[in-house]
Fold these 4 entries.
Entry 1:
Amino acid sequence: MAEKFRYMKPEELAAEIKSGGLRGAYIFLGDEDYLKRHYLSEVYKSIMSAEGLELFNYGKISFSAVSGGRDAGFSALASSLSSFPMGQERRLTEIHDLAVDGLPASALDMLCENLKAADETNIAILCLRKNEWTFDYKTENSQEFKKLSAAAKLVRFDIQSKPKLKTWAARHLSREGVGASDAALDILADMCSLEMSVIAEETAKLCFYAHGSGKTEITESDVRSVVSQAVTTEAPPFAMLEAAQKWSISDMYAVAATARDLREEPVALVAKLGKIISDMLRVKAGLEAGLTPAQIAKETKMKEYSVSKYAAAVAKAPISKLEESVRLACETDAALKSTQTDGYVLLDMLIAKIYTPRSLLC
C-alpha cells in the first residue's frame, strides 16, 4: 500500500515563519480561507523587513480576467520570481485567482515550472480558495496533485474543531474586555457554522454590543439576539460599517478585498454599503432638523447607540456629500445589473468616489 501523503500543518508553517526558515514555494489549500489570509499576512510581515521597499520586494499576482487573465498572470509571475530582493534578504510573490480545477495540462506545467523557481531568497505562495481545487478520494492520485506536490509544499487549512473555535472566540472577546459563558461560545460557534471569518465578524459585533450596553459578559441570549440578525444576507458586515463610519478608504478597500476572497456578490455588497450610507443620511437629516439622537432613534426605529455612532461619523460631513454618496450607490447598483463591466471594478470605483479623502473637503 502506498504511503499516505503528508500535508504541511499550519503549526509547522508558523514554526518556519518564526525561525526564518521559509524557503521555496507553498500552496495554501483546504476549506478554512480565514486561516490562509492570516498566514499570508504573517509571511508578509516576516519577509518585509525593509520599510518602504515593498514595490521591489513584494509581488501580488492575480490571474483574474480583470487583471489580464492567464497569459498576463504567467508573464507577471515569471518576472516576479526572477527578480532579486532589494534592501533586504528575501522577497515574496503571492499568486491568486488561479483555480487548479479545469487548468489545462500546459498551464499546469507552466505553473509548476514557475513554482520550482522559488528558492530561499524568493518565496512564492499560491493561495487557493476552497472552491478552486476540489478534493475527493481520487485527488491525491491525479496528475495535478502529483505535479504540484513535487513543485511546492502543500499547506492544508482545515475547518477547526468546535472547542478550538470557542477558545479562539473567547480570546478575541477577552482582548476587548468582554467575557462570555461557555453556553454563549457554544451557540456562537454553531450559529456561525464553525467558520472563522464569520466568528471574527460576529465577535467584533458582540464587543460593539457589549460596550454599548455596558455589559462585561456576553450571554447565550445576547448571542441569539445579536448574531441571529448578523448572519442574514441583508445585514451590513460589521467591518464595512466600521470602515464607513471612519470614512477610511483603506479600511473599505480591505473589506472589499476580503469579500472578493469569499466570493461575495458585488451587487449584494453595494446594496449593504448603500444601506449604511442611507442610514447615515437619515441621521444627518435628523441632526440638522434639531433632533437629538434619542429622538432620531425613535423616529427611524434604529437603536440609540447606533444613531450616536452615526452622528459622530457624519458630524463633519456635509449632507450634500451623503446625498451624493447615496446617488452614486444607486448608479453603481444600476450599472451592475445592466453592463458587462466586472462587478468588483465597479465596487472599487464606488469606494474611490465616496471615500477619497479630498471628496470630504466640500
Entry 2:
Amino acid sequence: MAAEQSNYKAIDPLLTEAVFGAVPSGMSLLAETDIIDEVTIDQGMLSGTLWIDQRAAFMGNEGDGDASRAPGAPFREVGDEAPFTETYLVRNRFGRSASIPKEHRRQSQLPYDLVERRAMQLERSRLVRRERSLAGLLQTEANFVRALDCAGTGAGDFANVKTNAGGIAWDLAGATPFSDMMLATELFIEDNGGIRPDTVIVPLRMAGALARSAEFRGYFGDSTAGLAAGGHPIPIPAVRDLIAAATGVSAERVYMPFGRYRTSAEGAATLAEAYAFSATTFGLYKLSGSDGTASGSMIPVSPVAAIRVFDAELSGFVRWDALDGTAHNVAADDFYHDKLIPTADGGSTTTLGMLITDCIS
C-alpha cells in the first residue's frame, strides 16, 4: 500500500514521454508550438521575481548632447535605467484524472493500451487548457496599450491612425488589409523604440477572408496565368507569406490557430463548442528572445510581451492501481504561469503587443 501511494505522487517519466510524443496534431493548437518563450524554474521555486530590462536603457543617450570626449578629458558616465521587477506565481493550472476498470483493459481487443489512450485524452485536455490560457493572455484588449477596432471610427480606433481611406473590415469590399498590416507594424515599431514584432496571430477563419481579399489577391502571382483570377481565393500558404511580407515577421512565426474546445458540460445531450482564439482578432507581438533563465527565484527577462514560467518537475503524468484492485488510474498535472510583461514599472499593459479587433464582420 505504501508503495502504491508513493507511485501515485511520482511523475511517471516513461508514460509522460510516451504521451507527449504520441498525441496526434492536426488541431493547430498554439499550445503545441514554441510561440511563447518558456522558462523552466529551479526545483521548489514556485514563486519568485522577474527582473525586467527597460527598453530605454538600450536606446542610446542622444538626448544628453555631444557624446565625444576631448583629449585627456574624463569619460562622461552613462546613467543606468534600472530594471524593474514583477512577481510570478507558478501553480496548478490543470489537474485531472481518468479511471479504467481492470476488466475493460483485460477484455479490450483494440490495438492500443487503454490506459495510454486515456492518458492521451488527458494530454489533449491539458493542451486545450493551455490554448485557452494563451488566448486569454494574447487576445485580451486590456493587456495592450494599442487595441484598435478595425472598422471603428472612435478616437482609439484604427480608422483614425490610417493613412488610407476609412476603417473597413477585411472581408468587405474596399478593405485594405495588406496596407493596414503595414501601418500596424509601423505603429508597433514607433511604440517600442525601434523593436520589431516577431510574431503574428491570424486565426484561420480570418486567413480565409484574406485569401479572398482583392488587395491580397492583387499581390499574388499573375492573373494571366490563372492565379487569383476570377475572384478565386489564393492558397493559405500564400496568405501566410503575404502577411510576413507586410509585417516583416518570418513566415514560420505567422500562426493561424483554429483549435476548438467544448463549452458544454461533460455528458450534455448537445455538444457545444467554440474557437479558443477569437477568429476576428489580429495580433502583432514581440514574444521570442526573452533570454529568460531561472537563477534560484530570480528570472532576468529582456523586453517581450509575455513569457511562460514552467515547473517541469511537478508537471506530467502519473499512473497507479486503485487500492481495492478494481481499476487502473492515470492523472495529469501541469504547473505554470502565463505572465504578461508590462512595459513600465507598476504597469498592467504592454506595448510589445498590438491587437486589431473586429477584422472580419
Entry 3:
Amino acid sequence: MATYRYLTYDLLSNAVLADLPFSDVTYGEVLNKPGSFSGTLPMFGDDAVTLANIEVGRVGLLVERDGSIVWNGIIWTIDTDVQTQRVRVGAEGTWSYFQRRIIHPIDPYGDLAGAFAQAGLTGPYYYDADPLLIARELVTFVQSTAVFGGLASIHVGTGSETSSARVEQYEINEMDYRVCGNEIESLAGAWEKGFDFRIVASWQAGAISKVLQLGQPHIGTRRPVTYELGRNVTSFSVGWDGKRLAGWVVGQGKDSIFEHYLNPSYTYPLYDDAHTWGDVDDETRVALLTIDRANKHKIPLATPRITTNDSVDPDIHSLVPGDEVRVVASYGLLAIDGYYRINAYDVSPGNDGNASVKVDLAPTELFDE
C-alpha cells in the first residue's frame, strides 16, 4: 500500500509550507495540458489547515507517493462549507501558470525584441528554428526576473533537448499579446514539427525542482505493458464519433486569413470541416492549427477508457502521458487488441490507502502518420 503526502509550497520562494491531511483526492495528468487535482480538508482539528497554507494563486501543491513527487500544480480554487465543516481545494498542473502569462513586457509600449535580448534569448523572431528551442525560450522569457522582476519566476527550469524538426518562420509580434501557454500548445500541435511537453517535479538535495520536459515528436515510448479486461482492468469503455471525420479542413483566422489542409484517409468518403480562430491574426499559427485539426479528424476517434487500481501491474506512475501500451478487450461487439497512447490519467487514492486509476487512451495512428 502506497503512502501519500500532500505538500503545499510558496510559488515564489519555492519553500514548503505545510503537509496537509487531504481526503477524497483525485489527481491526474493530461498530455500537453495542465491536468488537475481536487481534495478535501477538515475545517477544524489540524493546525496546518490555514488559508495562508492554501492561498489561491500564491501556493503550489505537490502530491508525493512513497517519497517521490508524482504531481505538481497550483491551487486555484477553495470552496468552504460551514455545514459540513469541510474545505474543497481545486488545483491545476503547473503548466496552468503559463496559460496566464502574456508574451510581452509589462510596459504596453515596450520593445518585445529588446526584452528578449534583455533576458538573454534569441527570439521573438525565429527562422529555421528547432521548435523545442522556441518552447524553452517562451517559458524562460515569461519567468525572466531581468524583464519582469521577482514576481515572474515560479522556478520552472528548462532542459537542453533538441530535435531535427525545423520551423521555417515563427514570429511573435509585440502587438499580438499572445498567451505563452496557448502559443506553445499551438506549436506543439503542428503535425510534422510538433512535440510533447510536461512539467516534472522532483526533490533535488531536499529542494523542489521543476523542469519543463520536451520530446519531439513524442514524450513516451512503446512500453512492454498490457492492459487486459478481466486481468488488470476492472472497467472498460470505448466510443467512436463519425461526425468528427474530415479529410479537408479550412481554417480561418482574424482579418480574413484562410488556410486549408487536405489529408484524406482514402478509406472513408470525403468529409469537410471549417473552423474559425477569430483571435488568431498570424498566418503561421492558423496553418498549424488547421493541420492539427485535419489530422485529428482523419479517422474516427476511438477513445478507450480503462479503470484499474494500484495493486496490480503496471503502476501508472511508472508510465507517462505519451507512452504507448497494449490494450486487450473482448466483450460483446468489442474486440480490441492493439497499441494505444496514454492521453490522460486520474488517480484517486482512497481514504483506506487503495487507489483507483482511470486511463484515457487514443489510437497511435493519430500521432504517428
Entry 4:
Amino acid sequence: MSGDKTAGCTMSSAIELLKQITEDSGLCMMVTDIHTHEIYYVNKDMQLLLQDKVGNYQRKKCYEYLHNLEQPCPKCFLPNLIKQPNLEINSLRHYAQNDSYLQLKTKVLKWNGKEAIIDYGKNVTEQIRTQKELEENARKLENIVVMEKMAAKQAVESQQTLNAVISRAGLWYWTYDILHNRAVLQNKCAVDFGTPLIIENYPDSLINSHVVLEPYRQLFFREMEKIKNGEPNAEFDVQLSIKDGSTHWVRIDIMTVYDDNNKPVKAICLGQIVDKTKAMEEEFKREEARMRASDENLLARVAANLTKNIILEYKAKDSQSVKLYKQGIDDLRRFSLNVIVNDEEREKFRSFNNSKFLIDNFTRG
C-alpha cells in the first residue's frame, strides 16, 4: 500500500510539473485510460481550446468530455491501440462544440502503472478555416465559369450580374481574350490596379507595368503562356502593387474556356488577397520545423527532471525511504522512453534514469 501511495504522489508531482513545463509551449495535451476511456489529465491549452476553464474533465470519459456522447465514438481507434501498443497515430480532430481543430499524435504509455494513451499536438483551427475559405472561393470561380459559358452560348450580356457576384465575393476579376491578346477588367479590378478597363497586348503590358512586382514577372508570364497554349487551369501566388501604393500577396486562379474545336479562346482570371494566408503558411512551416527539431523530447525532459528532483528531495532521508519511491521512478522512466523517438536520445535517457544509479548517487551521506 505504501508503494501505491508513493507512486500516486510521484505521478501527482508529475502532473504539476507537466502543467508548469507545457503551460506556454503551445501544445495541447490529454491523457486517457486506454481501456475505460477515463480522462487522467488535460493540460491548460487543451482546456482553453475546449472552453473548459474549470477542469470539468475530472471523472469523465473522453467521449463525454470531447463530444458530449454517452458511449465511445463509432470510429474510436483505442481498440486498435490495444491490439498494437507500438502504433503511433497522426490525426486531425474536429471538436464541434466550438468548431476547433487539432493536429494530434497519439501513443500508448504507462500512466501511474496503468495503460493509457497520450494525445498531443497543435491547434490548427485558423489554418483549416483559411483552407475552407479558399475552397469556397474556388467553388465561386466554378460558378462564374458556368455563367460565362451560358452567356457566350446564349449571347446574353451578363456582365452586370458577374460584377455583382465578384464584388460581393471581394475578389478581382478579369477575362483574357486569348485570340486578340486583350484583357477586360471588371470595374473594381481596374480601379484598384490603376489601369484601363481594357488592356491591350496582354499579358506583357500588365506584367511590365507597376502592378506586378519585378521578382514575379517571369512566373506570371510562364503561367499565362501555359493558358495560351491550352492548359485548362492555373493557380499561382505573386506580389502585386495596387493604386494606393500598398503591396499584397495575391493568389491568382485561372480557368480556360474552349471553342467547339477545343481551342483555347478565353481565360477567366480571379485574384484574391492572401496576405494573412501566406503569413500563416510561413508560421506553420516554422512551427513544423520547430516541432520536428524538438522530436517530442519535451515530455521526456519533463519526466527526467522530475525523476531527478524526487531523489534530490529525499536525499537527506535514509535510503530505505528513498527506495519506497522506486516504483514511481520506474513508471516515469518507462513513460519517458515511450515518448522519445530518437534512438540515441532514448539510450542516453535510459542510462541516466537507471533507478539503482540514481539511488546510489543521490542518497549517500
